């Protein structure tokens, strides 16, 4: 039976993860879960972010379920770079998978977009680019200060994620992949992405392709999100585009993600796209749907497509039944979805 | 009298620039305009993108009116880096000013946003960041290829654009500045931006401030664009966010911009946010409003606030009078706005 590690993390993380576990437990009884106490509280208590011993233990699991990481009391970057990105990079989670669909019952902020019309997935590169941590500063706190951030991109890293995007497109109805970059300004990295994309595309004549600059893609996600099937892009562009995609499909309260190591060398990690939302933490107001759907992605990745599909269907029923404008209660949502799964 | 250089450029550039000039001519008779033939056609004819002699001539003008640059027949980056960015950088146009408002008569793709409710301006840094052109590649076209792009940020460059944003906020009703960056990942550049922002904010106790990560800002521009007054951000984030802001306020057909050298050492440059749109070029279908409004920003920058205000009012009348769904004809729009200005 599957052994998963649970990192509930900060803010609303523990609340939404509790509901995801509730639902996983009924969808696939017997999943063994071990909790790891990581995040702001541990950092304040011990100064530790992610001890090597914990990293090693996590590596021994089949998958990781993560809530949220980040707290205003911790300097920016400490938990994000030291915990979240450390896991994505250490476990070579090069496919950051972020599906967005407009569910029946959910109102898009876009006037003309109807449920069922948007069904896209962003395949975001997860282990390179500006997230590599290559940067520095000189003459800090003086008028002469200079700070750099370097985007590192390899053929190895680009090709494997582009291949994953094409493989996913082949399993979808529309079979279309959009490459998003900024080749007209970032000419070196852009050229590497474009050439690699073209080479992989040539091996997939049954998949249609297009290229868009990131600014244009950001715009079209607002004006015509229906046009997209699979998007593939770099780490930072993917970060931004997936929040737009989430916004037009009902908000990050519904957006799930997987940081996937497709080779299976290391565990993959599943987490809602939303952050720790300290302003509403501990009040039972967070929508656990994103965490629950991340749990479904997790089960799917572990080969339990059936259990995953039952969770997804139950989420669909939950969303379709919501009265507009009524605030959600975290635990009640989890209860309803769990009941629906076992029905 | 003002002497301006006109770079009509590629695609729809010449068409929309012709209308902008028509309107400028009636708003402020006597502006002397010199045309410079730069862009894809010249590149194909002569191999030249921006000869030094032309750069020197351009420097002698009071301002530059630019249409659009870019053509599918030219490798990505050649015209963008060699012409557009070369001008922005050579002329130290460090404030890339991009106002977005939802005009009466214009329908936002957002269901709940009403005309008059969105009125924001993005102050995008124009001379640093990932646009610096610092990057390279090794082992090109081999499996070992690596490509880098470096974001360069200086206290000098950040402080001057942040100061400009606060100065603009002081002249606006809401007096609010939002800093957008990604401090939790780009820790070096993010820290420089955040510390500089805080220092300048301390000198402006009458201006309220907030910070948002770029992914959150991209989302809020879709869900709550009303919340923003002035946004200040780096070159690449500004590129993406201004296309979203344009999308939610009726599209890039209406979005004007100025690449401004506030010190007056070099000419500032004014251009629509849209690109060359080769698919509709030469057919009289492009909306010239963005170019016309860029002309208004140009006149304002040169001290002709009155003429600028009359153009802006005439654009307002044009937009308010448009029947929904009717395609625009480039020259007719220019004629109507010009007639309104002289009325
Ligand atoms: C918290 C942050 C480091 C993270 C990212 O930028 O990847 C988040 O925004 C996300 O999208 O998962
Ligand atoms: C054409 C391109 C180089 C340019 C940019 O990225 O700045 C454009 O997108 C813009 O926003 O003016």
Automatic annotation (TrEMBL), chains A, B:
Q: Extract the InterPro entries matched here.
A: ICDH/IPMDH, IsoCit/isopropylmalate_DH_CS, IsoPropMal-DH-like_dom
Q: What is its EC number?
A: 1.1.1.85
The organism's place on the tree of life at top rank: Bacteria
TM annotation in the entry: none
The cofactors required by this protein are:
Mg(2+); Mn(2+)
Q: Which GO terms describe its molecular function?
A: 3-isopropylmalate dehydrogenase activity; magnesium ion binding; NAD binding
PROSITE patterns (UniProt xref): IDH_IMDH
What enzyme category does the UniProt record give? Answer: oxidoreductase
List each copy of the Isopropylmalate dehydrogenase-like domain by range: 3-337
Keywords recorded for this protein, A-Z: Manganese, Metal-binding, NAD, Oxidoreductase
Query: Which PANTHER family does the annotation name?
Result: D-MALATE DEHYDROGENASE [DECARBOXYLATING]
Please state what the protein is called: 3-isopropylmalate dehydrogenase
